[in-house]
Amino acid sequence: MLRKVAPSTAIQIKQRVLRDGAAAEQPLLPGWAELLAAVPIKYSQNAEIFGDGQPAEYLYKVVDGAVRTFKVLSDGRRQITGFFLSGEFFGLETGNEHTLSAEAITNSKILSIKRSVLAVLAEHDKEIERRRLELAACELKRAQTHATVLILNAKERVAKFLLEMASRNPKGTKIELPMARLDIADYLGLTVETVSRVLGDLEAANIIARPTARHVVLRDRGKLSPTA
Amino acid sequence: MLRKVAPSTAIQIKQRVLRDGAAAEQPLLPGWAELLAAVPIKYSQNAEIFGDGQPAEYLYKVVDGAVRTFKVLSDGRRQITGFFLSGEFFGLETGNEHTLSAEAITNSKILSIKRSVLAVLAEHDKEIERRRLELAACELKRAQTHATVLILNAKERVAKFLLEMASRNPKGTKIELPMARLDIADYLGLTVETVSRVLGDLEAANIIARPTARHVVLRDRGKLSPTA
DNA sequence: CGCCCAATTGACAGAAATCAAACACAGTGG
DNA sequence: CCACTGTGTTTGATTTCTGTCAATTGGGCG
Questions:
Q1: d(CA A121, CA A123)
Q2: B117 in Cβ contact with B9 (< 8 Å)
Q3: From the CA of B227, how many Å to the nearest CA of chain A?
Q4: pTM value?
Q5: pLDDT given for residue A71 in this prediction
Q6: Phi, psi torsion values for A181, nearest 5 degrees
Q7: Between these two residues, B47 and B169, which has the higher pLDDT value?
Q8: pLDDT of residue A27
Q9: Smallest Cβ distance to A75: which of B141, B143, B227?
Q10: Which bases of chain D come closer than 7 Å to a protein CB?
Q11: What are the pLDDT digits (tens) for B157-178?
Q12: HSE-up of residue B181 (Cα within 13 Å, Cβ side)
């Protein structure tokens, strides 16, 4: 099933121009804030948002829910390259085609921003250009961090993953995991069994607690990050 | 020992302005080609080019030789994040500080381009801006590819590495490896012994030949890339 | 309530790390 | 010129870790 096209972002945002001041030197063009005020689209659990090889027309923002981006190797193995939670952007591509696929992990609301619109606006709006660069930098850092995790052993990988999720979730030490163990495994280059075992070990060592399978509480952050 | 400061790129390039046409709409400012015509600096084997945490003042290009970029974890493990051969750029940072270290693998000639100069020029020179984005995109792709390699098993990692090196070296199937086994191991998240063993296995299977330790000949590319 | 899928746990096999030793080669000094 | 030394590479034996296969448990939803 092909993805439905987003309601024309350009038209919608024009209606909002000139409220919410910010960068209003170009009264007829929307700024960053206006782009983000468009109406999000709903994707149900496991729905494809875009696929590897498809033309990359949009940049996306998770308004609510969670998203995974991944690559499927020719032998069927899946590598998850990133998880994206509420407020985070994904789908940024440098070329004209997606080099990854993206799916909703849970029922999600996703905002799409047309790249062609963004490109035009960036020509005259320094903030938009800055934001775009910032996103690219963020993606690069994300990929580098991911690579760094993948040279570690299983326990260290899971620990890093938990710390990463904790740092993104606002509520301190309580982590809510929207994704299944298989997703975590494919992200960390491990098997579900290993992920499960490591979590079991961490709980046994009183480093974490697991009220439910999808909720983790950090009890001893120090012991999770010996390799800071 | 602290790094010697590069001879002022800005001054040197001014002397060359207006030869080699290209983007000469700004007669007093050098273009991309002029930036690359500056005099390279020599670094001897294992010399540090920049260190993690230092201010990132320059963008670098390998004129001759080879460079490794890496991160040292708090427990001493080293992750090599990339190898850079003649003609390739490295040291691109999004922030103001380096997040990696870089060393010459062999005696090398390295060209440095001051970021501040680049930033000023990019304001008015579309080509320079385009080149900068292109480099950032290249870095991102590199990091993503690296992450993809790290979820594979030892044999696959080494195979991917050989193919990567082969694709960068012009001479088809003959690969010259400027780096030691330890470098390869740290790049692939393996140990030297494992790298050595896999190479031995590949040679025994007649997939590669090794005239010397630092030279590899691809005999059967197909068997190296089953997981294209 | 029962089904189904996700998660866990256990037993075992296979892969890679570790520890140890032999070997190759380049540069040095006699 | 050759022996010597030091580093880099390879090979071997063993241990540790992770994957695989299989069975069991648990939780959410119809």
A1: 5
A2: yes
A3: 6
A4: 0.88
A5: 97
A6: -60, -35
A7: B47
A8: 62
A9: B227
A10: 8-13, 17-22, 27-28
A11: 999 999 999 999 877 789 999 9
A12: 13
